[in-house]
Amino acid sequence: MAAVVTELEPEAAAAAAAEDATRDAAEEAVDTGPRAPPLLAGNRLNLDLYPGGCHRLLHLCAQRSPQLLQVEFLRLSTHEDPGLLGATLAQVPGRLPCLRSLVLKGGQRRDALGACLRGCLTLLPAGLSGLARLAHLDLSFNSLETLPACIPQLRGLDALLLSHNCLTELPEALGALPALTFLAVTHNRLQTLPTALGALSTLRRLDLSENLLETLPPEIGDLSSLAELNLASNRLQSLPASLEGLLSLRLLFLYSILLTSVPAGLVHLPLLARLDLRGNQLRDVPPEFLDTPFVRLQGNPLGEALPGPLSPPGTPVVPEMPRLFLTTDLDSFPVTPQGCSVTLACGIRLHFPAGAAATPITIRYRLWLPEPRLVPLGPHDTLLSHVLELQPHGMVFQQDVGLWLLFVPPRAQRCREVVVRTLSEESWTDLETHLEEEAPKRFWARCQVPHFSWFLVVSRPMSDSCLVPPEGTLLRSSGHPGVRVTFPQGATEEPRRVRMQVVRMAGRELRALLGEPEAAVSPLLCLWQSGPPSFLRPVTVQLPLPPGVTGLSLDRSRLHLLYQAPPAATWDDITAQVALELTHLYARFQVTHFSWYWLWYTTKNCVGGLARKAWARLRLHRVNLIALQRRRDPEQVLLQCLPRNKVDATLKRLLERYRGPEPSDTVELFEGEKFFAAFERGIDVDADRPDCVEGRICFVFYSHLKNVKEVYVTTALDRQAQAVRGQVSFYRGTVPTEVPEEAEAARQKKGSDALWMATLPIKLPRLRGSEGTGQRPGTGLSLAPLNLGDAESGFLTQSNLLSVAGRLGLDWPAVALHLGLPYRELQRIRLEFRDDLDGQIRHMLFSWAERQAGRPGATQLLVQALEQSDRKDLAEEVQAVLELGRQKYQAGILRTGLAPGDPAPPSPLASESPEPAQA
């Protein structure tokens, strides 16, 4: 069974459905008008257990309620939209000036195993430092990676709770909290502690359990007021002697931290009432520890000798399984019958158990950029990874090979699951998948691979399946327990496989689409089967009635049962063709063959057309397009397609190095939809790129991937006289043949099928000074023509190297050092080309290239140096040039018949999903 991201039992599913309905109602109330104030008891405002807590607080702030001035205690859930949460917190200092306690916790939601989920909080507004009266701050169960800068400025803070976050360190500024008495940083990833921790002279309770601490700073002994210290479940093999100076200490927890020794003076602390040393590696302790009743030593190997050799002399030594770590310049590795563990340069891991390969073989791999022919997606699937190809194809192993694929965690998790999809015998199948979290934001999809092919990670609606025997059976949805299919005896002569998926549509989106407050729909039921298309006897399907509708009160004339037979995109109303049996909560009907079914409750006519629009809305993603130019090099343009909720955070990160116009208006794209960026009005793409089609950059939109490209542009216009003001336009589908003329007409309609999506301005500034002399890069530098690399791995020509040199700018010394040039040579180049930055860069790069001529791996060395110097933009351009050269070389030798047959990527016919393709 596939790994389920969020799985609900029947009772939990019903409760979750009720919670969703409550949330929809709360959000609707925010949009439609005033409503009853939230629970405000005296000076306490509790919003953490209510859906839409941020909306409720913003509503109160907008009303300027005088009650807010009296609030001293505020609780708010961080399971909210990050942008909405940030906007809400920005209102707090001005609207709640008397606030003394602020609780911003996650943990109200749970995963499939019942564990609390972290909230989305990653930072705090700087304005929160203005809460002069704040004494208690709880940020537990969130996603903080660093301590927000505003916290050390809260000088009146008495208690700070940071448990269950992703912190790896604490800043030295933490020591500037003079009133702090309680600090909890449990269940994080702390590896070190700041020395300024010892400056917290008022601290009484310190909880650092469940971290990765290996050492403690001696300054911890300066905490003169400390009464309770918890260091359990860390990696501390020893303790500083300064702990003997904690004269106020009453409780000391040191269990499960791998201790091999302990300071003898701890037991003599005057106020100590409990010393917990359980589960350590203590083999010998001072005698007073054994005679003191408050010392706990269970689980230690006291009195035991150190372990001897693992095996007696003469025993054959079994060789350890080899571990391989591949670099970027390697695309193959050997596997022997002994087995091995392999980590690819892209982070993917493979484990070949001993005996998996009967004879030594060479495995080749390649990571493909996702594109429609390589990515088979169902209508409601989302892609979470790139595409991994493992060769030789069809290679069958004696034992299954373990495969760990990195993936982006899906944003929507309820009733969805993550699976690894692979091509097997000309069809795509989903493997049994298990999820692992190695670190925050680093997730693995683990599966067992019987053979080699193409592999990718997708998120799909939770899928339930069963084998239907002639005796009949019952199939029930695990995510929606009210959805079930009953197969009577004799429905089939031979056992056949049946699969079910259920997709939910939010009531708020539907009402916005129809403009009808009372409209409602049931979950969308998708059914597939193997074998003959029809059953021998009718099968009974049960669907829950739309929310808010009961069988006792509904108007049957408004109830419609819709049917779709993929791959057709039309929905037909079959209410009059079936006998609908209604109960208080459910509708039942009988069918003889499977398709998709949907119950609608509406007063509208032409329900089939409305269902088609609603189904499209289910699969559309709202995005914004950005086009930014690098501040130091305006010819470098960054193009990106971003989900609407990530635009602000991404721009905040990019605007230090880039500048450009505001993002485009919101547009809608399907998962896997192709679109193009076309530079217009005198601006053109300045390189031969594999993704450049007829001068336009090709994108394929995948909602969980970055969808970003860096492009270098040029112009044939005279930049010495004036700046060139051009633009970049984004178009759907195939490349338009007459872009400017069609754009004017296309701008008049902006639906999901419109050709034109957005246009953003691009400006190439006027050339001044030495830039306007008309000399091309490289003029005045006499170097023999050279080609770096080889035909098989790809060439970098002199023109390519000149293009790289022209864009390095002030980063060239870092690149030079990563290329292995000694610092003395850098100084010599600076002295020789004192007033000529371009000359410094060209001389460095070409002198290095001349020394590398004819050597293997030189091009990959340049790519690595660019990446290590934080110039991934140039590294990606060089990789694209090399890839284009390799493709041309392979095509050339194939035309001459010199190359053996090489497995080609899956054809579009082979790429069809086991589910119907997106309409």
Instruction: Return Rg in Å.
Output: 32 Å
Summed up, the helix count is 14
Which shape, going by the Cα principal axes?
globular
Helix/strand class: alpha+beta
Distance between the termini: 28 Å
Helical proportion, percent range = 10-25%
In what order do the strands lie side by side in the largest sheet?
2-3-4-5-6-7-8-9-10-11-12-13
How many DSSP-defined strands?
51
Major sheet: size, sense and barrel closure?
A: 12 strands, mixed
Low-confidence stretches: 1-38, 735-753, 770-785, 896-903, 907-919
Which percent band covers the strand fraction?
25-35%
Keywords:
twelve-stranded mixed sheet; 919 residues; 18% helix; 14 helices; alpha+beta; disordered C terminus; eight-stranded antiparallel sheet
Notes on the protein architecture:
This protein has a twelve-stranded mixed sheet with strand order 2-3-4-5-6-7-8-9-10-11-12-13. Helix 10 crosses helix 13 (858-868) and helix 11 (823-832) crosses helix 12 (837-852). The longest helix is centred in the last third of the chain and has 24 residues, at 872-895. The relative contact order is 0.06. It is α+β, with helices and mostly antiparallel strands and 919 residues long. Mean pLDDT is 79; it is low at 1-38, 735-753, 770-785, 896-903 and 907-919. The radius of gyration is 32 Å and the shape is globular. 18% of the residues lie in helices and 28% in strands.
